[in-house]
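Support request from a user on the community tier.

User writes: "When I paste my structure tokens into the form, the page sometimes reloads and wipes my input. The last time it worked, I copied everything first. Here is what I submitted, just in case something in the input itself triggers the reload:"
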């Protein structure tokens, strides 16, 4: 007798309700989309277009600014002025759409590719470049900016974000007049296989924390396709933790804004966390030390190039009568000027002095740290 038979378990699939044991079909995954690839409007039964075309002009400008930043930073790395860069080409709509939905008390916990969102939330260009030049650890005033520190340990920050959200909920419960802020936590499709990320889902669901997870599914965890990590669409994974989840077209900036706004309002109303799978494609390399031609076909990128978030938005705005060639020319001029600003900013980044390294470890330096600082400076002087 087998162990399964002795435990009373069936050895073959029982004849029962059709479909009960069928896995979800990834080919029929519902996805929120409000603007199609050609710029045409799409009606969605659950989400509406919240912005008028004239209001969305600012979103297009933000995406163009982010793309130029990414282009310049990639070139700076190739010239040896940065040690590394994590390109975000093709993912601009996700960051701009989320920023458009954020409230004044919401906080963002980024991974390592949210450069555009950092810019939009007020982080100076040189502070971002300094991280990838190896000149600082990114210890900016996260409370003031509401944009927390970059995380290079994949997935570790998700627990930090959920913990912060739990604190936000306690503050709101203790003081009815407190700001009802939400923690917005970014991670990629590769991070969903990390233990820290799954633990973050557990805590967020168990404590009904005001958190919104933005899973940027660009379909490649360095050289590993998402299909090797998950046999079901990623948003369905989060449902297993009891977190309401939805897949959104990550190249549709107004869809990202609409769904993020809905998720933030859920959290503020005490309805707990939400998981948003932003479905997109990593057009470039994972980082500038990566060569994607070694592990994927160029035809994939070509197909996704037709879904470009900037071109899509431009087409919609042109069809709506709020965008023309003259405005596009001014946008291109603004991008050129910003490119020059980025190139100048990298020259302003200076390596910290040895004593500054110790000064930026704790808010109140300890005696041990002071002793280590004195020793290091003494050895350096000799």
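"...and here is what came back when it finally went through:"
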């Amino acid at each position: 007798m087998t162990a399964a038979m002795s435990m009373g378990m069936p050895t073959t699939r029982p004849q029962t309700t059709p479909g009960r044991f069928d896995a979800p079909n990834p080919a029929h995954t519902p996805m929120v989309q409000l603007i199609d690839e050609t710029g045409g409007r799409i009606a969605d039964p659950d989400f509406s277009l919240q912005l008028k075309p004239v209001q969305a002009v600012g979103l297009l400008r933000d995406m163009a600014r982010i793309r130029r930043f990414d282009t310049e930073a990639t070139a700076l790395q190739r010239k040896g002025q940065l040690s590394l860069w994590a390109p975000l080409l093709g993912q601009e709509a996700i960051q701009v759409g989320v920023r458009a939905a954020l409230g004044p008390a919401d906080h963002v916990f980024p991974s390592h590719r949210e450069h555009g969102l950092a810019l939009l939330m007020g982080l100076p260009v040189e502070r971002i470049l300094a991280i990838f030049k190896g000149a600082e650890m990114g210890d900016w005033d996260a409370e003031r900016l509401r944009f927390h520190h970059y995380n290079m340990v994949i997935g570790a920050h998700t627990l930090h974000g959920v913990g912060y959200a739990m604190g936000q909920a306690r503050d709101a419960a203790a003081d009815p007049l407190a700001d009802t802020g939400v923690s917005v936590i970014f991670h990629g499709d590769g991070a969903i296989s990390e233990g820290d990320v799954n633990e973050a889902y557990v805590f967020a669901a168990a404590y009904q924390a005001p958190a919104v997870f933005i899973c940027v599914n660009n379909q490649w965890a360095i050289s590993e396709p998402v299909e090797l990590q998950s046999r079901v669409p990623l948003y369905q994974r989060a449902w297993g933790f009891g977190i309401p989840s939805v897949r959104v077209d990550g190249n549709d900036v107004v869809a990202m804004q609409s769904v993020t706004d809905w998720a933030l309002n859920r959290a503020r109303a005490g309805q707990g966390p939400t998981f948003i799978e932003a479905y997109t494609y990593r057009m470039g390399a994972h980082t500038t030390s990566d060569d994607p031609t070694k592990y994927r076909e160029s035809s994939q990128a070509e197909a996704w190039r037709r879904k470009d978030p900037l071109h899509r938005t431009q087409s919609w705005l042109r069809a709506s009568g709020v965008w023309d060639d003259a405005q596009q020319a001014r946008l291109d001029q603004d991008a050129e000027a910003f490119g020059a600003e980025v190139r100048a900013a990298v020259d302003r980044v200076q390596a910290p002095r040895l004593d500054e390294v110790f000064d930026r470890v704790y808010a109140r330096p300890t005696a041990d740290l002071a002793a280590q600082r004195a020793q290091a400076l003494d050895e350096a002087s000799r």
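Agent notes: The reload is a front-end session timeout and is unrelated to the input. Residues 26-377 form a domain with the Rossmann fold fold (CATH 3.40.50.970). The longest helix spans residues 53-78. Escalated to web team.
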